[in-house]
Specification:
The structure holds two protein chains of two kinds. Chain A is α/β, with parallel strands linked by helices. Chain A has eleven helices and 14 strands. In chain A, helix 3 packs parallel to helix 5. Chain B has one domain. Chain B has twelve helices and no strands. Classes of the chains: A alpha/beta, B mainly alpha. Chains A and B meet through strand 6 and helix 3 of A and helix 1 and helix 5 of B. Chain A: Its main location: membrane.
């Protein structure tokens, strides 16, 4: 057993003449959460499909739990669990039946969890006898993840596990994911949300049009992108000039007559900023506090916005 | 191992069918409704030379097979598009188990539908001249047809983009019996349609079923029917298997 749960080198995949993965290199240490961050169409799901043996790569190598995903697919499958982008649950069965189905299909092995335990843990006991078609989005995702846990996988792939969930269900999901990792499981998570990657991941890789444009800890990554800043819009170029002189570390945008002043968004910094405007008799037409999102990451790392090549 | 997986899959598919009243209605009751309609409403308008119920029953058996197919295509497709098949793949459930589960469930539905249909036909005065061996031959033909139609439909379902298009893709299969000698003899149809009816696969199949019920089918029809079914089953099987492997 190596200490790397997932090792990927030079992974390539194309559909027809559309290149989806253009040479991906990754290394995920066992027992950590790794997040692949990117917009729709970046190649996140394709990466997951290749790593989970559902799709064959055109080139490069990928080892999961020390086994080659192509040559030793069976060994890989025995060690992984996958929760796809859309809750892969059986709508016509009840929650309990869904879990029982997974139990029945699971190769006899060690450490089986019982259906009742999983229902309890995921707070689904009350709805266990109800048809899944009556479940909310959050409940489906929870059931999906519970189904994935049957068979005790050591490496779990979560493809956008919280897309489309309300904030509360999202937090519940995050808690569950953290709990899994504390039990020694390795998590490979894809997400479109910078906040999610930041909250959960030990390491983040940013995927853009099939290439990794950055990789590092959340801290390292955030140092590369513009932090929280205040955006001020002025009525005239003269005002903008004057303000740019007052705030030496700011970035100006002449077309929009806006000035971006770095700051943490806290009330003390904001008051100081407003005081300095007053001292210099400057009036801003508009004022907004901006926290970095996926768009900022992309703009900073690739020089283009997220939408450019999404489909 | 694969065997027990297949049983789990079949049980799942049968639960689905039992919990979906629309599919039960389409597969089992619809053919009976059609039978009542054809026999009572249209029957006297067609001159087929024999009692219409005796003429139409074998055709309606074929129709009963086809009516269940829309639901099969839809359910296979929703397994594929909702990621359930991917889940099974990652769990190392074999292609055979997943697909055979759908095929066997479809065949069982057909058998129930045809048994019910035949029962109603007898109530309506159906009076076949078939011996016990003829009935066995008929059952064999119906099973072969069910298996062929099921494999082909499973392939359609796997290949379709969405459950809706999968349901649509099965519609031609439901329509084809009408352009065969199932309901009226091909000779009574207009030019063009008549030639189509004479050469399409369902006509020899129906003539074979009819033959068994009347005593003995013509050898030519029987060979053509078996060949068509075997061919359709093989194409369906190969197509379904390759789509299953490729599509993620």
């Amino acid at each position: 057993m190596t200490s790397s749960a997932i090792e990927v080198a030079g992974l390539r995949k194309a559909f027809g003449d559309k290149i989806v993965l253009d040479g991906i290199d990754l290394d995920v240490p066992a027992g950590t959460i790794f997040s692949l961050l990117g917009p729709n169409g970046a190649g996140k799901t394709t990466t997951v499909n290749v790593l989970t043996t559902l799709m064959r790569a055109d080139g490069g190598t990928a080892r999961v739990a020390g086994h080659d995903v192509t040559a030793q697919a069976k060994a890989v499958r025995a060690r992984i669990g996958v929760t796809g982008q859309f809750a892969a649950v059986d709508e016509l069965l009840t929650g309990r039946e869904n879990l029982q189905l997974m139990m029945d299909l699971n190769r006899a092995g060690s450490g089986r969890r019982t259906v009742a335990e999983l229902l309890e843990r995921f707070d689904l006991t009350g709805a266990a006898q109800k048809s899944v078609s009556t479940y909310s989005g959050g409940m489906r995702r929870k059931l999906d993840l519970a189904m994935t846990l049957i068979g005790d996988p050591r490496i779990i792939f979560l493809d956008e596990p919280t897309t489309g969930l309300d904030p509360r269900s999202r937090r519940t999901m995050w808690d569950i994911i953290r709990e899994l990792v504390s039990g020694g499981v390795t998590i490979f998570l894809t997400t479109q949300y910078l906040e999610e990657a930041d909250q959960l991941a030990d390491r983040i890789a940013v995927l853009d049009q099939g290439r990794l444009v950055a990789q590092g800890t959340p801290g390292e990554l955030k140092r590369q992108i513009p932090g929280t800043h205040v955006r001020l819009r002025f009525a005239s170029a003269t005002d903008l000039d004057a303000a740019a002189r007052v705030f030496a570390d700011s970035t100006r945008d002449d077309d929009g007559l806006t000035l971006r002043v770095p700051g943490d968004g806290g009330t003390t910094t904001l008051r100081a900023l407003l005081d300095r405007l007053d001292e210099n008799a400057l009036r801003a037409e508009e004022f907004s506090v901006h926290t970095p999102d996926l768009d900022d990451v992309f703009l900073a790392l690739t020089g283009h916005a997220t939408e450019v090549d999404a489909k | 191992m694969t065997k027990s997986h297949a049983v789990v899959m079949l049980r799942r598919n049968l639960k689905h069918i039992a919990r979906n009243p629309v599919s039960v209605f389409n597969a089992v009751l619809m053919p009976i409704v059609m039978m009542l309609m054809f026999v009572y409403v249209f029957g006297d308008a067609f001159n087929v030379g024999v009692d219409y119920i005796d003429y139409a029953t074998p055709g309606l058996m074929l129709l009963a097979v086809c009516y269940g197919l829309g639901a099969v295509a839809t359910s296979v497709n929703s397994d594929m598009t909702k990621g359930i098949i991917n889940r099974f793949k990652v769990m190392d459930v074999s292609r055979g188990a997943v697909l055979t589960g759908h095929v066997v469930a479809s065949v069982l539905t057909n058998v129930i539908a045809i048994a019910a249909l035949t029962g109603v036909a007898f109530l309506l005065g159906f009076d076949p001249a078939a011996s016990f061996t003829d009935w066995l031959g008929l059952a064999g033909m119906v099973l072969l047809l069910s298996v062929a139609a099921a494999w082909f439909t499973v392939a359609l379902g796997l290949a379709a983009k969405s459950p809706e298009t999968a349901g649509m893709a099965a519609v031609p299969l439901v329509m084809l019996p009408f352009f065969s000698s199932a309901i009226v003899p091909a000779d009574l149809m207009g030019p063009g349609v008549r030639q189509f009816a004479e050469y399409q696969p369902f006509t020899p199949i129906i003539e074979t079923l009819r033959g068994f019920l009347n005593g003995a089918p013509a050898t030519g029809d029987l060979i053509a029917a078996v060949a068509w079914c075997a061919g359709i089953a093989l194409v369906g099987y190969l197509w379904a298997s390759s789509t299953f492997t490729k599509r993620a």
